[in-house]
Specification:
The complex is a heterodimer of chains A (about 240) and B (about 375).
Chain A lengths: L2 H11 L24 H10 L1 E8 L12 H12 L4 E8 L5 H15 L3 E5 L2 H5 L4 H17 L3 E5 L5 H6 L3 H13 L3 E3 L1 H10 L10 H34 L1
Parallel strand pairs in A: 1-2, 1-3, 3-4, 4-5
Helix pairs in contact in A: 1-3, 3-10, 4-6, 6-8
Chain B lengths: L10 H17 L19 H24 L1 H33 L6 H7 L8 H9 L10 H21 L1 H18 L4 E2 L4 E2 L4 H16 L1 H7 L4 H22 L1 H4 L4 H7 L9 H17 L13 H8 L1 H22 L3 H27 L17
Antiparallel strand pairs in B: 1-2
Helix pairs in contact in B: 1-2, 1-14, 1-15, 2-3, 2-6, 2-8, 3-5, 3-6, 3-15, 6-7, 6-8, 7-8, 10-13, 14-16, 15-16
The chains are: A alpha/beta (about 240), B mainly alpha (about 375).
């Protein structure tokens, strides 16, 4: 997509961030930019491009591809980095735990050489009650693998809803993601807490039966996730650039 | 059981167990803001430690007496009788739970969750959904303390002979198992593959046995909890440090003051494997609390706290009821109304139901029974 078109789309779809009435906005206690993207910033400087790889557990519906967060991330980031080539590739590993994702994650990183990996992880681990220690160990190895191949990595945690959280114990896994990412100086994208904020403040409703409402929820959550992810990635790139000077 | 003093019953056991049951009920409704009132937000350990420790203590109190008087056979049968009651209650909870799951899983039908979790199709077919629930693939979140309770109770008959004859050896063995478990990361598996128990029974047994063994040495226990300035200061310092640490997780502005290195050294403070930091916190807290909670403390007999004591006395039934109510309350908050008032109402109604049940049970157990001067402890709920 051409930058101008991307910019236009972004402006039309999702207005400027950080406004008080922004439906996606979350408090700083939920989302704080606290890491750097040294490798991605290098890449951007040298190649003028930002190839991103999203590795997730989704089994996407192609009909909704445009409304899903990887597509939106590409548009949003392209709009924020005019003149740079932003591409987002997706590797779907449905039903995989963190540990099971490791080989495919490494292979994909080796093959595609992304500047940045967005690793959405933990959903299956929580559903299957995988031991927290082994979950944490798998996270740490994934982070080390990506770094060893010269890519930055950010970790995206699980989705939140009261209904799913009633049946699946997510919180300890979310806490573990926070702990492991802090220890490795890697950014934790707190999707779980963000969705909790949106749902608790009534900005999105997920319990409804109607098809229309379900689609609305999907569009809202993916739209906001894509936008906030783009926002934080560009903020981290700026931070890194400033520190580098 | 007419007067609380009868039979030299230690009201502290009932009170703190009752309080733990209330906390467990309130904590297990994730959507409930009133969970802020409970102890887990103000320190490293929570109501689970209190519950497991007191369960060990009272198991020893009740079953060691039966064992000494009537032999191993009867004591083992009494324990199994209790387990059977627990199991029946569990089956009942399970059915109620399955119905609630079927109701709740409609959310998984949403592409937002179905595409990422890959479970939408399971629930298109109710038979499969039921089997998934039966296999405990989807357990109600936070209710894992029930399997721990069953397993610990089931091993009591095996522990009894050692508990009565060689309690110190038993404690040493239990401690060794705890240390080895933490070192080798032993745990029991869950279905499907790769999962493990949230409350690791190999680790948590230590607290249970510790309670049981301390019960065998009343003088030593009393000596251990005697006020000593140095110990008081140490315990208070540890509890205060835990308070600051626990608050720093909740309050971002306070968390900013925490040196990151500290986190790297301390975390993760594993609940699954009963992290020593939690264990020490529980012991320090117990030491401090026991300074104001003496067996003859008048406040334990106050009318205001009588409902708590009552719940602690009927702990098995109240515990199971609390589990059921917390899931039911959660469903109400999720599906019907989640307002602050609804949270308050669910909390109050739930606790009232627990108190009422305890009251009816106490009445039923004492009604129509000839007054017995001796052995009142047999009426204790045992674990």
């Amino acid at each position: 997509m051409k930058p101008a078109a991307a910019l236009l789309t972004a402006v039309l779809l999702l207005p400027a961030p950080a406004r008080a009435d922004d439906p996606c906005a979350v408090p700083e206690s939920v989302l704080t930019v606290d890491a750097h993207l040294t490798r991605a910033q290098d890449w951007l400087k040298k190649a003028g491009a930002l190839p991103i790889l999203v590795v997730n557990t989704a089994k996407p519906n192609p009909a909704r591809g445009e409304a899903s967060y990887p597509a939106l991330l590409e548009k949003e980031l392209a709009a924020r980095l005019p003149g740079r080539r932003v591409t987002v590739a997706v590797r779907n590993l449905p039903g995989a735990t963190a540990h099971e994702m490791l080989p495919a994650l490494d292979a994909a990183v080796q093959e595609q050489r992304p500047a940045l990996v967005v690793w959405q992880v933990g959903t299956m681990d929580a559903m299957r009650n995988v031991g927290l220690d082994s979950f944490g160990a798998a996270l740490a190895s994934g982070i080390a693998q990506a770094h060893a191949r010269g890519s930055d990595i950010v970790i995206m945690d699980m989705q939140y809803s009261l209904q799913t959280s009633q049946l699946i114990t997510f919180q300890p896994y979310v806490d573990y993601v926070e702990w492991v990412t802090q220890n490795n100086d890697v950014f934790h994208f707190p999707r779980y807490e963000m969705m909790r904020t949106w749902i608790e403040e009534g900005r999105v409703t997920v319990g409804s039966e109607s098809k229309e409402d379900k689609l609305k929820a999907f569009t809202f959550v993916h739209g906001c996730v894509g936008r906030l992810l783009a926002q934080t990635i560009s903020a981290m790139l700026d931070r890194t650039a400033e520190n580098g000077q | 059981m007419k007067g609380p003093e009868q039979g030299g019953r230690d009201l502290r056991l009932d009170f703190f167990r009752g309080l733990a049951l209330w906390f467990i009920f309130v904590n297990h409704i994730p959507a409930n803001q009133f969970a802020w009132l409970t102890s887990r937000n103000y320190g490293l350990s929570d109501a689970s430690e209190v519950f497991v420790f007191i369960s060990g203590y009272t198991s020893s109190l009740v079953y060691a007496k039966v064992y000494a008087r009537s032999g191993w056979g009867l004591a083992a049968a009494r324990v199994l009788d209790r387990c059977w009651t627990l199991y029946l209650t569990y089956i009942f909870l399970f059915i109620a739970f399955t119905a609630q799951v079927a109701y709740t899983t409609r959310a998984f039908d949403n592409p937002l969750f179905a595409e990422e979790m890959g479970i939408g199709s399971f629930f298109a077919d109710p038979t499969v959904a039921l089997v998934q629930a039966l296999l405990l693939k989807f357990r109600p979140a936070n209710l894992d303390i029930l399997p721990l309770y069953i397993v610990l109770l089931l091993v009591v008959p095996l522990l009894l002979p050692a508990l009565v004859r060689r309690p110190i050896h038993l404690l040493a063995l239990s401690g060794a198992l705890y240390v080895l478990t933490r070192h080798f990361a032993w745990n029991l598996p869950t279905y499907p593959e790769g999962g493990e128990w949230f409350f690791n029974p190999f680790a948590w047994q230590f607290l249970f046995v510790l309670g049981a063994v301390l019960q065998r040495f009343p003088e030593a226990s009393a000596a251990l909890t005697r006020p000593r300035l140095a110990v008081l200061l140490l315990a208070a310092a540890y509890v205060a440090a835990s308070l600051v640490l626990a608050l720093s997780w909740q309050i971002a502005s306070l968390g900013a003051f925490m040196p990151p290195r500290l986190g790297e050294v301390l975390y993760p403070i594993s609940k699954t494997d009963l992290d020593p930091l939690r264990l020490v916190h529980f012991l320090a807290l117990a030491y401090l609390v026991l300074q104001v909670a003496r067996p003859d403390s008048a406040w334990l007999r106050s009318r205001l706290l009588a409902p708590v004591v009552l719940c602690g006395r009927q702990s098995l039934h109240v515990f199971c009821l609390g589990i059921f109510l917390s899931f039911a309350g959660q469903t109400v908050l999720v599906q019907v109304n989640g307002s602050l008032f609804a949270q308050f109402a669910v909390t109050i109604i739930g606790i009232s139901a627990m108190v009422l049940t305890a009251r009816v049970l106490t009445w039923y157990q004492s009604a129509g029974r000839p007054p017995r001067p001796a052995a009142p402890a047999l009426e204790d709920s045992g674990a």
